[in-house]
Amino acid sequence: MVVAGGLQAAAPPTSSSSSSSSSSAAAATTSASKVPPTRAAAQPPLIPTSVVDAPTQRLWAASLTAAIQAYKLYSFFSPDASLSHALLVDLALVLALSRLRIPRLDFIDAKWAIIGALLAAFDWLALGGWHTLLSFAGLGAVTSWIAAVWDDAFSRPMGLSEHRVRISDLIRPSSHILGEHTIHILPHSTASISSRAPTCHCIGVGKSRVEIPIFFNNTDPTFLQYSVTPFGSENAYPTLYNVTISKGSLTTVESARDMLQGGVKQAIQDGHWDEVEAEVMGSGSVVQRQGQHVPARAGQRSRKAKDSNMHPRQSSQQKFDLSVSAIGRVRLERVMDKSRMDARIAPGEVIIVQCPTTSFAPSLDGQEAGSSPLALVKNNAEDVLSALLGRRHGSTPGAGFRSFDWALPQHEKVPIFARLDRTGSYSWELDHVRDACGNEVSMSSIGKAQFSKEIQVHERAHATIVGCSRERPLQLLRNGTAKEVLLRAANVETDAKWTASVRFEPEDDSTDAWTKNVTIGNDGLGRIQAAKPGNYILEQIDGSYCSGEVGSPWSCPVIEVPPPTADISFSTIEDVCAGSVGVNAMAVLSGSPPFRLQYEIKRSGQPAFRQERVIERTREEFEFRPSTEGAVQYRFIGLSDANYRGLPLDGPTFEQVVHPLASASFVKPTSSSASRREDSKIIMRSCEGNRAKAEVQLEGTGPFDLTYALRTANSGSSVGSSSSHQAAAIQHTVKGITRQRHTLDIELPPAINAHGGSMTISLVSIRDGKNCERSLTTSDVNVEIRRVHPTAAFVVPGSKAAQRTAVLQGESLILEGQEAKLPLRLEGEGPWKVEYRREGDAVPVTTTLHSPEAEIVVDRPGVFQLVSVHDAYCQGSVVQQSSRWNVEVRRRPVVAFDAASAASVGGQGRSSKQQQLSSLIRPPVCRGVPDSANLLLLSGQAPVQVTYEHEAPAASSSSSPTGRRKRETFSTAQNITSLHLSTSVPGWHRYRLVEVGDSSYALGAISRSDSDDLVLEQLVHPLPSARFIDQDHHSSEQQHRRGGRSGPNKRKSFCLGDTLSGRDMARAAPIVQLSGSPPFDLEFELRGIQMHNVALDLNEAESIGEAGDKPFRLDSTGTWVYRIVSLVDGNGCSSTPSPGEDSSSSGSSSASSPPSLSINVAETANLASVGARDDYCVGERIQYVLQGTAPWTVVYSFEGKVSTATNLKTSTSFSRIAEKPGVLEIKSVAHASADADADSVGGGGGSCRKEITNPATESGMRKTIHALPRVRIMDGGHSYQDVRQGTLATILFSLSGEPPFDFTYQHLEATDRHSDPKVLETRTVVGVNAREYRLQTREQGTWRVTWLKDRWCSVSIDGETGDVKRGSGRSVKAKKMAVRGDVKGTIGKGEGVEAGGAFEIEME
Fold first, then answer.
1. What DSSP assignment string belongs to 569-627?
2. Is the peptide bond before 930 cis (omega within 30 degrees of 0)?
3. Is 798 helix (H, G, I), strand (E, B) or coil?
4. Alpha-carbon span 354 to 208, nearest angstrom
5. Residue 1269: is the preceding peptide bond cis (ω within 30°)?
6. What's the rounded Cα separation, in Å, for the pair 1252 and 1254?
């Protein structure tokens, strides 16, 4: 139960009274309410939950804790791991988490103390406390084992080849103690064919061999001989077979004594158990015959064997499967092992007969072969039949038989009866057959066809004639192709062939009757060609297996269809005036419609013209009216109906001379006519004159007189003098027209010609050459007259109010790059072609416009003049008062630098690339000095925006022609503006005006790029600088300038007592690198324990080192510092380092390093051997103690190869693992400071070096490493040897190393027979001076070596190695010294130092 305040109240005691419970609960509540609020309720979190919610704070706290613990685990693997550091980190973590007061993590102080204690305990255990804890618990051996495993798994000490090695790989026992030897004492061996295995086998189809199990006791057989005696003759000679047995063909049969059951007494009384077989089976393998019990006494006889440790093979026996392919009696004759020793052969034989077989005869009978009597089992869809076949012979495989005639194969035959009273598929299958020996053969395993029989009962086919019957006979054309009579048969199977018999009966009683056979296809269809009329009858249908049935319809009548005919008669068409004008033809047809009647019309002097007409009835009338006069011939040439196609007709033919009636009609206008728009309409425009033309097509006999009428559409008056509202038609007659096509030339009426309008032309009548006149009702032609004149003019504002005679000119003001649109007003029919010219241009411009209110778009300034206009049909005129338009361009703003701000114009003092650009040159300034230039506004409308490009040099180079580019934009309304120049980066600065814009023009590029006043340049001098560099760094910079690579800077190192003077110290003198313009004024100082004041003048002394009064000696160890005080160059630019740059801890400075240089003064290095031993074994650690100041460099040689050990700064001990035999010699030891020069004062490869010229004479400087001894038992592997009882075995130990040898061997139980063999004997052999040692024994077991020692080294099977003699080492502690001093000096003004160069300073 939880109450307010976060405290838990005690539960009330259990009581049956509810009042007691209520009072207890009330008491608990009252008690809880008196509890004061907790710290969480009193103090909120340090970070409010409104800023960071509580779950996020807990996530951050958990992440911080996990990160700190991971860092601690990582630091525990470092050699510098400290318990105090880990405790401080945990203490800070606990204090921080407790002060944050995170919700649900705001524990009381006691809980935080427990958490801190747990973290401290974890740190103590991780940093070695577990070792102490286990030692107190009495588990020191466990501690040592864990430490050894840890070192072996993760420790990789340094070897003499300067590579990491694993000690366990060097002293692995498996590479020095090789091999084990196991001896087995074998009992007598036996071999037998087990009497409980099947004694009768068979060989036949699918089974060419028989596997007979052979059992071996106490032997590893390699050779076996067996015999096979054939059946049928008592005196037959057996055939011997030899078999070589491989190790892989033997299998081990485990003990099965629990299978020995009752019934053995009866077996022994019956004489079926002999002692040899009992001994064989007593080894544990039991194979039981069917229906035979295993005697229990067989297990008792096996107890006569010796102890299982001496005869381990009696607990199991081996089995070999003998493969036999011959038929007869098989007996085992001889067995030998690999020692050519014979095994005892137990009596017994196996009989192999021919396997029984069976198959179906050609009829439904079964025939069998095999050892009689035989049993056959047959299966089909209805029943299962079993039968015993054959008879028993006088000799059977019963007890006491001597003859084996019964084993010879016998042949039997049995009939099988079946009733096929239903249709379908019947199948029989022989399942299996069994002979007298019980050999059963399954027919399904062989899978041959003669073991199954199948019969198919087929249905009868049902055949009929399709598509033809007595009600629908088949029609045959006269002299046409034969028709097809289709036969269809149902229930046709694909594997059966069916043939139908068809008989033909002709219509007459002629002798053309016949009968034919038609083959029915797999689709059940048959076809026969009917070439003559008559009756085709389907008589019968027969198949491959049975006959079929014939259904209705079974007959097909074929009749002959007659061809169509035509009866045609002609009658002329007469005119009262003209005479014969055509002809009528009446055609009466017979046949099957539709008909197609072909005819041709031929005029004199012209080729014949053929036509065809489709007729759906039997009577049709043709009317022919030729349009031209002359002789015409009509002839019908062909006829077709629904059955016949293209039957020729020989006439009839009709000839006549026709005189056609005259007619006339307007010719439809062609697309090439410019004035025509529609078929019956003529459009005339102002440029086409006052006459209209219409073309007429005439037919008949000329000459012709043509009468036409004109009618206008004006409502006021007609063409004549009539004043009625309906315009009167005026007729005109054209006489003597001789051609078939005539053009009417019609003059327009004056009113329509002047103002436009419409007019209709109608053809009234025509008279031909025979004076026959005919009225015409052809289509009229409408004429539309349009009198609008094309014109063009500019739309000038105010042109309506101006005088018509005044010349008006339009004006446009545009910006550069913009287009001006000149408005036009056009009259006429579009599209219009307008031609205009710009003043000053020789060639006018033509443009096509489609709107009467269009615009001309121009992109150049000037005065534009309209030249001409042409609409779609006519040439027009230009309105001269509005034919001009003036286009002007507003000027862009112009800015430039004030030339007064520049010292000169040109490229003096710049690079060759910069000199190609003309610019204003501003006077140079030093870096950091403020400067500005004036900018002039020459034209433009304020406010003006200006963009300039500032090209600054690279930050580290004052002579680079290109550098960083930056664009800036500013606005100004003044004519003169001040532009601030950048002086923060030394070098040439280039300011170029690139864009300008005002209120009209947007910001755009300035095109006057070749002008001098657009570019301003100024040189900013860099501040001089000085820095110290060592010779290695100086040479590496020179190498870098030549394209090489430079190494890291190193601090100069000197030995105690060295002087900074003399030619031998010139290479070690500091070098100062200066940058700027010479000459320079340089001031520097040297600080140590003492202060040395030295004044030098570069202009007088040959070298700086010769200017002093006395040599300067480094008389104390420690760090000495050079520092630059001030520097002034030839440009007057000064540079003074800040106090913060005086750092003595800086080494060789880089470009960003302060102007100071530190040097180290150290004492001479030395080392001493730990212990007095000079002989070591492979895998041991050779250790030395280093003296002097870390880090050190040790040079040594091993087997002629010189190696250098560097970076020895974490410990005063120098150790290496002896990884191979050889001689180690120490050559030198020196200090190897990371800042020291590789070729410093002390010598090559380190400072304060101690050379060891003769390591053999100095104590501990020469060590000899010896190889570990080695022993090999027999061939070095796990060898086995089997010997019979009483035979002496020899074990060979081969030794390598330096004698004398001592070794310890163990005699164990056989390791291949025992999972945990017991040690039977342990002996140590000492003082062996030979390389071989032989041990003879008659005992069984395994021998192995556990420890070996030669003259120098020893090795054991548990991995321990070492030198024979153990020596004691000594510890030498290095001594460190610290010396301080101060030296000051000054360099005067010098003239000979180049900018960016370096010079040397030697202190004396």
1. EEEEEEETTTEEEEEEEEEEEESSSSEEEEEEEEETTS--EEEEEEESSSEEEEEE--S
2. no
3. coil
4. 10
5. no
6. 6
Token pair 């036996």 in the structure block, residue: 190
For 349, the token pair is 């034989």
Query: How far apart are alpha carbons 280 and 1281 in whole angstroms?
Result: 24
CA dist list (Å): 130 to 134, 141, 142, 147, 681:
6, 13, 11, 11, 123
**Position 177, amino acid:** I
DSSP assigned state of 848: E
CA 580 to chain centre: 96
Measured distance CA(539)–CA(562) in Å, rounded: 30
Rounded to the nearest angstrom, the gap between the alpha carbon of residue 995 and the centroid of all alpha carbons in its chain is 50
Contact 1196, 1206 (CB under 8 A): no
Q: What is the DSSP string of 914-963?
A: GGGS--EEEEEEETT--EEEEEEEEE--SSEEEEEEEEEEPTT-SS-S-E
Exposure letters 1343-1373 (e unless 16+ CB within 10 A, then b): bbbbbbbbebbbbbbeeebbeeeeeeeeebe
The CA distance from 385 to 53, in Å, is 91
Residue closest to 654 by CA, chosen among 713, 600, 598: 600
Dist CA 1211 CA 753 (whole Å): 129
Residues 6+ apart with CB under 8 A from 412: 367, 368, 369, 372, 374, 389, 390
Query: Are 1401 and 1071 spatial neighbours (Cβ–Cβ below 8 Å)?
Result: yes
The phi and psi torsions of 457 (rounded to 5 degrees) equal -100, 120
DSSP 206: T
SS3 state at 759: strand
For 274-315, list the strands marked E by DSSP. Answer: none
Is the model's pTM score more than 0.70?
A: no
Whole-number Å distance between alpha carbons of 460 and 1244:
118
- State how beta strands 862-870 and 781-785 pair: unpaired
Q: What's residue 1324's pLDDT?
A: 93
Distance CA 951, CA 609 (A): 96
- What does DSSP assign to residue 1268? P
Residue with tokens 């061809």: 563
Helix axis angle for 54-76 and 83-100, nearest 10°, is 180
The whole-number pLDDT of residue 448 equals: 63
Q: For residue 572, how many other CB atoms are within 10 A of its CB?
A: 13
Question: What's the rounded Cα separation, in Å, for the pair 571 and 584?
Answer: 5
Distance CA 1023, CA 262 (A): 119
Residue 1020, number of CB atoms within 10 A of its CB:
25
pLDDT means per 10 residues, the chain with 1404 residues, are: 34 37 36 39 77 89 90 72 81 88 86 89 74 60 61 70 79 85 84 75 85 87 92 82 90 53 40 37 34 37 37 62 90 87 85 85 64 52 39 42 73 72 78 82 70 79 88 85 86 82 84 86 86 89 86 88 90 82 90 91 87 91 84 91 88 85 80 47 72 85 88 52 54 88 84 79 87 85 82 77 62 87 89 92 91 90 92 87 89 85 59 56 87 83 88 63 77 86 89 88 75 82 79 54 47 69 53 79 70 41 37 71 79 71 40 61 81 88 84 88 79 85 89 50 57 85 91 90 80 92 93 88 92 91 93 82 42 26 33 36 34
C-alpha to C-alpha distances, 1125 to 1060, 1155, 1158, 1160, nearest whole angstrom: 21, 8, 15, 21
Rounded to whole angstroms, the Cα distance separating 1253 from 1194 reads 14
Q: For residue 867, what pLDDT is reported?
A: 92
Sequence-ordered list of residues with C-beta below 8 angstroms from that of 1400, at least 6 positions apart, any chain: 1066, 1069, 1070, 1071, 1072, 1103, 1104
